Amino acid sequence: MKKIEFSKEEKAEIVSRIRAYFDRELDPIGALPAEFLLDFFADEIGANYYNQGLRDAHAALLRKMEDLTEDI
User: Fold this and answer.
1) Torsion angle, CA of 56/59/61/67, rounded to 10 degrees?
2) Is this model's pTM higher than 0.85 or not?
3) For the residues of 20-38, what is the DSSP string, one character each?
4) How far apart are CA 40 and CA 29, in angstroms?
5) Which among 6, 30, 8, 7 is positioned nearest to 19, based on CA atoms?
6) What confidence score (pLDDT) does residue 64 get?
7) What is the pLDDT at residue 1?
8) Which residues have a Cβ under 8 Å from the Cβ of 22 and sit 6 or more positions away?
9) End-to-end CA gap in the chain
10) Which segments of the chain have a pLDDT < 50?
């Protein structure tokens, strides 16, 4: 699978959200550790979310095709 990459703007926004989460729920972390955490999740579990999205899209497409078949 292709490596998940974010633009600089997307990465900055995600890192900001990770830091805000840590500030609220855990102990504050810096920008660099938050960026490393983002990279870890993208590399290690990103494919799982991507594949689930593909399965969901496939199921939705099949439902639409079944509806179309019934309409015909």
Assistant:
1) -140
2) no
3) HHHHHHS----HHHHHHHH
4) 15
5) 30
6) 93
7) 66
8) 28, 29, 34
9) 38
10) none
Helix ranges, 1-72 (H)? 8-25, 31-44, 46-71
| Residue 57 token pair | 């899209």
19: which 2 tokens? 């830091």
Are residues 22 and 29 in contact, defined by beta-carbon separation less than 8 angstroms?
A: yes
User: At how many degrees (to 10) do helices 46-71 and 31-44 cross?
Assistant: 50
Beta-carbon contacts of 4 under 8 Å, excluding residues fewer than 6 positions away, are 42, 43, 46, 47, 50
Residue pair 29/19 in contact (Cβ under 8 Å)? The answer is yes
What one-letter code names the amino acid at 38? L
